[in-house]
Structure formats: structure tokens, C-alpha cells
């Protein structure tokens, strides 16, 4: 089968319509998990088939697509998803956050603030934030329907009891517009404040067959206790290459002797800063 | 305040439940007054658990009404919407299961188990939740240093005491208990009974306690209903029923206990 035998963006129009209906419903009810009939995609589930289907249903020919994995455009996962859409949709691609009209992401929100008109598509492994304490799907649905969210705080309580502080660092639960409690996917809690955004945010879980969404400027509150308020903490270092003190950092082991350094996880952000002349301790100007 | 005393807390009328052709419980009626403990006794299979499940809204009866005092007026709880019923279960009602693991979250610490009901009704201050949980663990004689342990590490008696603390922490207006001392060693039972009696007195609890053990109702219940084959055969004040049983079945029940 050659590339031109695929429909635009791989999925057939029927399927895309079905997915778009789920997306629209998700946007109409922010934070609510909409079931959809997930399709087999030519990649394993762990590779973000939910996000890929949402992107496929959202793309139009003059879109410019950016794909990141843990903030980087050049990981195997990001590269292969980008190639997939270059091949099946023929869309332009970019690594620059500001140039992209659609950004598919796994585990990060770009550092560069998003703007109106952009769409951020998240790959979601486990969409149900209540799953940790309540394995029954029938029960979690009821809990969402009736706004019975006490269990989320039990989870945070357990965190503090065990670690002295809310140790949840990824997939930190949020409440959307005072209504649905939502799992923001495994982004670091550092990114949670960015969930209130001018961009449209779409979340796709392939294996669990759920889509949910945040329309622009939706209120998103990270759950916490009065005496243990939400803290989007960040490692207390500048980026070793670009000197940024406001970005999320990856720790990189540099040698066998325990040497390490901290680098921006957002490769585009780091690159833009370097291009603008910023340097860190390791930065070659 | 007198108005509250003039009206039962719970009014049960004609509650009937069949399992296919078999009778679970038939045509049960009684009133429970505020601060009163009602014991339901009878041998295994007499319909006690079925009745309790119907009263607590876990099992829909075929017929009958279960009216509960909501803001001063008696409302048929069987007609409540599901959100209303679930709300009742989180706030005014509590249910202590025979097997603690049915009523506990085994993957959550003891403190978290007790705190859950507080958080379910909106508590959002960790320190306050924790100190209330600590207070309740103390009241059910669970050492403070076990607060962050999971109930899987607890003995059967401790698990049952934890389940009781978890249920009572929000001060429910009505507590349902199904064989709360069942399945425990005799010495453990005695300690639990003692504790329950203390709590009932201190808190002025209104409760319905199902048991096959007459010693339990002797200690805890103000009034007694005796069930046989799904029917109530005798009811009255506990001491009266136990000391001067009128129905032949009750006489048998009482005498068999005396032989033990
Ligand atoms: N789920 C069920 N399905 C069918 N029959 C049941 C069920 N539960 C109880 N029964 C029957 O209903 C009667 C009353 O049982 P139950 O309420 O459990 O009695 P008790 O609690 O007094 O031991 C018994 O005959 C029992 O076999
Ligand atoms: Mg029983």
C-alpha cells in the first residue's frame, strides 16, 4: 500500500466525524470524559494512539504540526508521529512552538505561552483520575455524575501522611470550572498552571477509548488542602545550556563519576533562548 | 427540640423482600426513636441481613416504606433519587459490615479510612482531618502510631474497630450494623462490645443492630425484634423479651443461649 492510498490523515472520513463529535462534546462539557470508538492505528498503544486519532481528526491541509515527547521534538516517538502525518496528511511540520497550529504532546506543555487558535493534543495513558482508589468503572462514572470527589483528597491525604507533603509530581489532578475532576495526563505538576490557556486543549486516550477537552480560558484548579496548597515546584537550578530559570528541567547524567546537569526539557524553548544569545554554565555561545 | 422527640427517626412499614419464591423478610413494621438502639435477632437464615439491607437502601424491597426524618419530616427513602440516597449514606447514615474488609479501603491508611467521610463532605484542611482521625482512632483504642498503617496489617478486632471509627467520625444520625461482632474471637468480641456500649451511651447513637448473639443485644439494645423464617415473631423491650419471652420460638432461642 502506498501513501496516496490513505485517506487524508490516515483515518477515513466516517471515523474522523465520529471523533470530531466526541471532541465537540468534550469541549461543550469541559473535563468530562467522552467515550469514543478508538480505531486500530499502525503503532502500539503506548505510542499515543489516542492523541494520534485526535490529531488526525483535527488536522486540515494547511495546518503546521509540531510533535513533542517529554518536551523534545527529536525522540523516536515524536519523530515517528510527525513522519506519520507528513506521509499520510502531507502537512507542514515545525519544531517551533510559535509556528505550530497543532501540537501533539506526550508529558509536557510547551514553555512558550500558547495563543488563541492553537490546538494542543495530549496523549493520555489513563484518563480516569479516580482509578487509583476505585477500580470499578460503573462506580467512577457515578462519582463523576454526582460530583463525589472526596476520594481524590483521600489520595492527596495519603500522599502527605506518607511523605509529609503532596508527593504527586505528575498527572496531578485538577478540577475544571468547579465541576469535573480531570487527569491532565502525566505532565509534571509544574505545567499545571499552564492548563489555563488561550489555546484549545484536547486529550485522547486510545486504549481506554476516551476523549476530553478544555476550551480556551477554562478555569483549571489543582486540588490541594488549605494547609498544603498546590505547589508547582521546579528544581532550583538554571538550565545549564541556556540559563533559563523559568523552565522545567531534565536531569542529565554526564559521566560515570556521578556528574550531572540540568537542561530545559523543552528543546525548542532552549534552542530559541540560545539563538537569542542566552547561555548557561555549559552553553557554547 | 421537643418536636424531634415526638416523631420517630425511622418508620418502617410492611417491608417485604422475596428471592424468587423464597421469602427473605415479610411485612416488617416498626418505629425507631431518636437515641434508641433496636436489636434484630434470630437464627441464621431468618432474614435479618435481608431486612437490614432493605432498610439501609442496599437492596430494593418488593413492598413497604422506610421513612426517615429529613429536616423534621418523614420521607420515604425508597423514593429518594440516587444522588439523594448516596448523600444520605455519606452524611446521616452509616453502615458497619460484618466483614471489616467490606467496609474499609484496604489500600488506604487507617487515618485515611477515617478521614474519607470527612473529605466526602467537604473537609479540606489536612491538619484538622488528621486530628479528628487521631481522636477517633484513640476512641476505638487504636494506637496513634498505627495511624499511617494500612488495615491489612491489623488484626480482625482492630479492623472492626477501625470500621466503626470510620463510620462514626461524621456523627451519623442512624447507624446500621450487621453482626458487628461476628467472626471474631470471644475475647475480642467482649472488648468490641464494651467499646460499642461506651460509644452508644456517649454519643446517644440511634442504631439498628443485627445479630444472632443474644449477649450483644442484651448489652446494646433498648428494644428487640425476634425474626423467624423472614417474619417478626415478637418484639418489645430487650429485658422483657429476653426475661419473659412470649413466643415459643423466642423461648427456644433464649433457652439455647442459656445452655451455652
Ligand atoms: N442473595 C440471595 N439470594 C437468594 N436467597 C437469599 C439471598 N440472600 C438471602 N437469601 C435467603 O433469604 C433468607 C434470609 O437470609 P438472610 O437475610 O441472609 O438471613 P440472616 O441474615 O438472618 O442469616 C434465607 O433463606 C436465605 O437463604
Ligand atoms: Mg446475616
UniProtKB/TrEMBL annotation, chain A:
InterPro entries linked to this entry: PhnJ
Source taxon at top rank: Bacteria
Catalytic activity: alpha-D-ribose 1-methylphosphonate 5-phosphate + AH2 + S-adenosyl-L-methionine = alpha-D-ribose 1,2-cyclic phosphate 5-phosphate + methane + 5'-deoxyadenosine + L-methionine + A + H(+)
Keyword Cell division on entry: no
Pfam families: PhnJ
GO MF annotations in UniProt: 4 iron, 4 sulfur cluster binding; alpha-D-ribose 1-methylphosphonate 5-phosphate C-P-lyase activity; metal ion binding
EC number: 4.7.1.1
A Gene Ontology BP annotation from the UniProt entry: organic phosphonate catabolic process
UniProt entry tagged with the keyword Iron: yes
Keywords from the UniProt entry: 4Fe-4S, Iron, Iron-sulfur, Lyase, Metal-binding, S-adenosyl-L-methionine
Family indicated by similarity: Belongs to the PhnJ family.
Function per UniProt: Catalyzes the breakage of the C-P bond in alpha-D-ribose 1-methylphosphonate 5-phosphate (PRPn) forming alpha-D-ribose.
Protein's name according to its UniProt entry: Alpha-D-ribose 1-methylphosphonate 5-phosphate C-P lyase
Organism field: Meridianimarinicoccus aquatilis
Automatic annotation (TrEMBL), chain B:
Presence of the UniProt keyword Methyltransferase in the record: no
Record-linked CDD domains: ABC_NikE_OppD_transporters (cd03257)
Source superkingdom: Bacteria
Annotated transmembrane regions: none
GO biological process, one term: organic phosphonate catabolic process
Assigned keywords, A-Z: ATP-binding, Lyase, Nucleotide-binding
Gene3D superfamilies: P-loop containing nucleotide triphosphate hydrolases
InterPro entries found in the cross-reference section: AAA+_ATPase (IPR003593), ABC_transporter-like_ATP-bd (IPR003439), ABC_transporter-like_CS (IPR017871), P-loop_NTPase (IPR027417), PhnK (IPR012700)
GO molecular-function terms, A-Z: ATP binding; ATP hydrolysis activity; lyase activity
Every ABC transporter domain range: 10-254
Pfam families: ABC_tran (PF00005)
UniProt keyword Protease present: no
NCBIfam families assigned: CP_lyasePhnK
Protein name per the record: Phosphonate C-P lyase system protein PhnK
Native organism: Meridianimarinicoccus aquatilis
Gene giving rise to this polypeptide: phnK
